[in-house]
Each structure stands twice: as structure tokens, then as C-alpha cells.
Amino acid sequence: MPEIIEGAIAPQFSGVDQNGKTISLANYKGKKVVLYFYPKDNTPGCTVEACNLRDHDKLFQKSGYQIIGVSADSVASHIKFATRFGLPFPLIADTEKEICNLYGVWGEKKFLGKTFNGIKRTTFVIDENGIIEKIIDKVNTSAHTSQILTDKIIK
Questions:
Q1: Type and span of the H or E element at 57
Q2: Residue ranges for the chain with pLDDT beneath 70
């Protein structure tokens, strides 16, 4: 598997979102994509991050970006999460961690003194040609839009 670095071709993926729709990177050829991986639905940090992206969805659209979230939660969990917080973008249920492994975000983590495997919160900004133009691995959940759209004024 090629290393996931800025300037590399984004790995192709396909998965089912909270609406039962199959989402593939190939469907977004010619469009910019914000592909964000988050650990778990309805947890404090993940909720703050999703709501920050939701609150700026129109700015992302105006800037030509489609947001796609990915976690290992089930479709049922994504339905509840998206409905509860009014999330307007697809959330892929990667229960088998295939997309997470493809992008190298599944691995050992430490939290509250415990070591376990999980999703490392990471965002990949992919350009219209399928090239990774930015990788954000130190996500500021409450200001994530600003991290992604550094050239835009975010209010």
C-alpha cells in the first residue's frame, strides 16, 4: 500500500452512509473532498467537530468542497448522530475498518492511561484530481473549519 502523504493520490474507497447510500471517492471526481475520520458518534469531541463542520457547510459548498465523515460506528448509530445534530453530509459506517486501514488512521491510541486500538482523528483534504493536498492529524475540534479552509475568513 502506498504511503498516505500530501501530494499522493488518495486511495479509492466505497462505503454506506447513514441514508443507506453507497458513497465512493470516484463519485466526487472533479470535486474537492474533505474526508474526516473521527473516533465515535455522540462523544464530546466528535460532536464538537461534526457541529463545527455542519455550521460552516455552506462555506464549504461555496468553496467547492464536499464533506464526508467516516467512523467505525454502525449505520444505525450514524442515523441517530446525524439526525440529532442535523448533519447535512454523509457519514460512512466503516464497521470493518477497511477505509480506516486504507488511510492509515486505525491503530494504537492512548486515552486516560489506557492503550487500545481505535481511529486516530485525521482529516484529508482531497483536490479535484484526487490528490491529497492537506493532511490534518492534530485536529482542533472546535475550530476544524479554520484548519481546513485556512485561506478563508471563518466567522
A1: helix 57-62
A2: 1-2, 151-155
Give domain limits for the chain. Answer: 14-148
Place of cell 448522530: 81
Q: Which of 6, 68, 5, 64 is nearest to 32 (CA)?
A: 64
What is the value of pTM for the model shown? 0.93
Largest CA distance in the chain: 44
In the residue annotation, 51 being an active-site residue is answered as no
Q: Which superfamily does 14-148 belong to?
A: Glutaredoxin (3.40.30.10)
Catalytic choice (46, 53, 105, 148): 46
| Cell output for 63 | 468553496
Q: What pLDDT is recorded for position 150?
A: 81
